[in-house]
Amino acid sequence: MKKVLSLVLVLVLSVALAACGNNDSSSGDKDNKDSKDKKIVVGASPAPHAEILEQAKPLLKKEGYDLQIKTINDYTTPNKLLDAGELDANFFQHTPYLETEKKEKGYKIESAGNVHLEPMAVYSQKYKSLKELPKNAEIFVSNNPAEQGRFLKFFVDEGLIKIKKGVKIQDATFDDIVENKKNIKFNDNQAAEFLPKTYQNNEGDAVIINSNFAIEQKLNPQKDSIAVEKATDNPYANLIAVQEGHKNDEKIQALMKVLHSDDIKDFIKKKYDGAVEPAK
């Protein structure tokens, strides 16, 4: 009888211990989930994107979120990491580039909202305006096909180039040029991050540089360029991208609320003096 009672007691204790173990595991899983929900990992270009996020960090901390910033200095890695789930969001691109990446690579990512505009600009150490450019002028631009229309817009607006009728400027490519009065040539053999060096080396007749890379080299598009984009009706505002179906997640909404706050808008205006502007 004693042996039977001992066996029953052992079984009861085993079940109780197992239950406690399960409860501890459940509690641990819940803690891990809560911790993950409060952490926001964002991949971003160094300037101005990561700088803006650094300003957002303490504001998000007040809301209970831990913003972690991973600096990435190229245009291909951030979407790859986001699509793979290694990031909660990325911050480096505009809508035309995002749509091109999705179409070409099948990424399941989407915009959670625009944050700022980096006015692209044309820089030259030889000429003071686009109209001064000589015949057969060589213009260095990035090898980003999603921005060919953006490059062309400078010359279309100046009346130096015409593109096919019916083609929207943001969709235009070099193949859509139907009139080129000065036979301007576009050299697109280099990545965007190398263009400031091209300008410093005085290569070509002019260089079109994305403002994030210009800023890193202490160039101000409003002051140092011979032509600069206008912010009004500009489709190239930089955005926060997330995996499809996650833009309404609480932590992404918290991130966007902070990035759209007056504190961040005031920081952008003061810090960059027109080289970067809050999205409109």
Automatic annotation (TrEMBL):
- Keywords of this entry: Lipoprotein, Membrane, Palmitate, Signal
Query: According to the UniProt entry, where is the signal peptide?
Result: 1-18
Membrane-spanning intervals of the chain: none
Database matches in InterPro entries:
Lipoprotein_NlpA
Q: Which family does it belong to?
A: Belongs to the nlpA lipoprotein family.
Q: How is the protein disposed in the membrane?
A: Lipid-anchor
Name of this chain's protein? Lipoprotein
List locations, semicolon-separated: Membrane
